[in-house]
Every structure is written in C-alpha cells, then in structure tokens.
Design goal:
Layout (H helix, E strand, L loop, with lengths): L1 E2 L12 H7 L11 H14 L5 E2 L10 E7 L15 E6 L2 E5 L5 H7 L9 E3 L5 H4 L2 H10 L6 E6 L2 H11 L1 H11 L8 E6 L3 E5 L3 E7 L9 E7 L3 E4 L8 H5 L5 E7 L1 H8 L5 H11 L3 H11 L3 E8 L8 H9 L5 E4 L4 E2 L1
Parallel strand pairs: 5-6, 6-7, 7-8, 12-13, 13-14, 14-15
Antiparallel strand pairs: 1-8, 2-16, 3-4, 3-16, 4-5, 9-10, 10-11, 11-12
Length: about 350
C-alpha cells in the first residue's frame, strides 16, 4: 500500500471503517445539459427492451446498488465511433466505485452524471493499458474538479509503484497549482493498495469486495472482483480466458458482467493489422467466446448475465444477437448486451 505522504499510510485491514465513515456527509450535485437529456430520452427507449436503460445521472439521494457500464470496448485502440475503453461503475448508497480506468473514464463518468470530485474508490483488474491508462488521470481530474477527500485504490502488484510514478511526473504541475491556485495537496488524498493473492480486498459498512484469480496470459496477476452489498451482488470478470472456477466465485450473484470475444470478428480484425499472427494467438488464449461465457453464467446460477469488454469492440457489423447467441445456448437466464452508459 502506498500513500504519497509515506508514514501516514495504513494497512488496508485497518482503514476499512475509517474510509466508510469519511464518506458520510458529502453533498454531491449533477448538472445535466439539455442536449444530453435529449440523448438519454432517446437512448433509454432503445435499452429498455432488454431490461436495462441509459443512466439518468447521479444523486446522493439514490440508495442501494446501481451498476453502470462506462466503457464496454476491449483493447487499447481509441477513437472511432461506438464504444469507449473499459470501465465499470458501481454506485453503492451514492458512493462511486470505479472498476478499471480505460482511456476516457473521466469523460464517461461526467456523461453518466457523476461529479469527478465525488470519487472515492478505484479498482484495477490487471495492468493492461485499456484498464489502467487513465488511473492517475482519473484522480487528477477529480482534484481539478475540487476533490478534497480520501481516495482508496486497489489493484495487482504494481499499483503502488504506478501511483508513485504518476506523482513523480506530475510533481511540477501539482506543486505549481498548490501555490498558484491554493489547491490542497492531491498526494495526501490518494492511498494505493497492492494485493498479490485472491481473497478479501476491502470491506466497509456498505460492501465487501473480494477478488479471484482469472486467466489472462501472459499476465499472471489478473483478477475478477465481486461486490457483495446489502441489496445486491455483482461480479466483474475482468479480462479472462475460460476459467470454470470463476463460476464458483460468481455463485448466486445477481449480476455477472463478463468479457466476450466473437471469433468471426477477430478473424476480420486481424486482416487489418500488421501483427496479425501474434494478435490472433493472444486473443484466443486470453479471452472468452460467448458459448463459454454462457457456461460460466449457467454454472454460477446468476440472475443476469451482462456482456461487456467486447473483442473486437469496434466492429459495427457484429449484431447484438451475434454477441448473445452463443451464450444463450448454455444460459437460459437474462442476457444483456452491454452498451456504454447503460445502467443495469
């Protein structure tokens, strides 16, 4: 665990209650522009047919557990139309818990109506750029928006060093703004916590978060997260090949958010890239086809399966039915093909 102030850091077992108590009393506001409201109205009617809807924004008054897909695209490429890079949000009794920080996460939080200065918890599943590229920028952007409260971040070994490295290369800017703009020192708010084994990650009054090791070669420390709140349980697979043990970890969850790879789309993708052979081998070894996603959901007996982190994530020719068809062969429950800013 790292706190840039060094000796002030506390082991994660000791600060669970403290961080929960610090969350109380924060007032959160959301400004919704007219054009965004019009977009939400139109998009909500489309999403409602599958039992989900585009998030209508953030409110501290909304209690319980809300799940919002911020970015549903797999892979590091950015730009183009459609999906944004990977990130998922849980709002638990009004407190944001961000899982993964692909490029664009800050903008997607704003689009979902979540003020960046309300950031409190960050979780990183593994150290691929489409999951951590905006890690430092996310809490920096929160600071620029007025963040002045503790943020706890959890991830595989290396997150603490990543936090130190971010502050090192942003040191001049942060020091300048403290003096020139009267801002508090961001480095005193960010507490990063490495973990290298599965099990309990954090616990507070609202939620228990645990991690399970998944299979995403060549990365050895890749994890799924499970959030057990008082009203709802949500499992996020992270990036993974088919891992039958993940079904045990997700057993009885209300929602399983699982990555998915569509092989015909992969074959189309590799025709457009110079590193085709190596990329094909990696994708086949490191991701999960729809049929196997369905097997995991069925064995876990989850109530709802949400497909996300689509590989490839930028091929508009792949239909929702094509994404879901293979999973439906093995899972008879509710299946949702995820969209950016969709709330489930």
């Amino acid at each position: 665990m790292i706190f840039s102030g060094g000796a002030h850091a506390k082991p994660r077992e000791q600060h669970f209650e403290q961080t929960a108590l610090q969350d109380d009393g924060w007032q959160m506001q959301c400004f919704q522009a007219h054009n965004r409201r019009q977009f939400l109205i139109g998009a909500a009617s489309l999403a409602s047919s599958c039992g989900a809807f585009i998030s209508s924004g953030f409110s501290q008054e909304k209690k319980g557990t809300r799940l919002i897909l911020l970015g549903t695209k797999g892979g590091p490429r950015v730009g183009g139309e459609g999906r944004k890079n990977s990130s998922t949000l849980l709002l638990i009794n009004g407190i944001p818990y961000v899982v993964d920080c692909g490029y664009g996460t800050s903008q997607q939080l704003i689009a979902a109506g979540v003020p960046l200065n309300t950031l409190r918890y960050i979780f990183v599943t593994h150290h691929h750029s489409d999951h951590n590229l905006e890690y430092g920028a996310l809490f920096y952007n929160g600071w620029a928006a007025g963040l002045a409260a503790r943020v706890d971040a959890y991830g595989p070994t290396g997150l603490e060093e990543m936090t130190r490295a971010f502050f090192k290369y942003m040191n001049f800017d942060i020091d300048t703004r403290i003096v020139d703009e009267g801002r508090p020192d961001l480095r005193k708010f960010i507490f990063a916590h490495d973990f290298g084994t599965p099990g309990l990650v954090m616990l507070n009054h609202d939620v228990k978060v645990s991690a399970a090791l998944v299979r995403h070669p060549p990365i050895k420390q890749a994890y799924a997260f499970r959030f057990d709140a008082k009203d709802r349980s949500v499992v996020i697979s992270g990036d993974t090949a088919y891992v039958p043990e993940l079904a045990d970890f997700a057993k009885g969850a209300d929602v399983l958010v699982h990555e998915v790879m569509y092989l015909p789309g992969v074959e189309s993708l590799i025709k457009r890239v110079p590193n085709a052979a190596r990329l094909r081998d990696h994708l086949r070894a490191a991701h999960t086809v729809p049929e196997d996603v369905g097997r995991i959901a069925a064995r876990a007996r989850v109530k709802t399966l949400v497909l996300s982190h689509f590989v490839p994530g930028d091929d508009p020719s792949i239909t929702d039915e094509q994404w879901a068809e293979g999973a439906r062969r093995h899972f008879s429950g509710r299946i949702i093909v995820g969209k950016d800013l969709m709330e489930i």
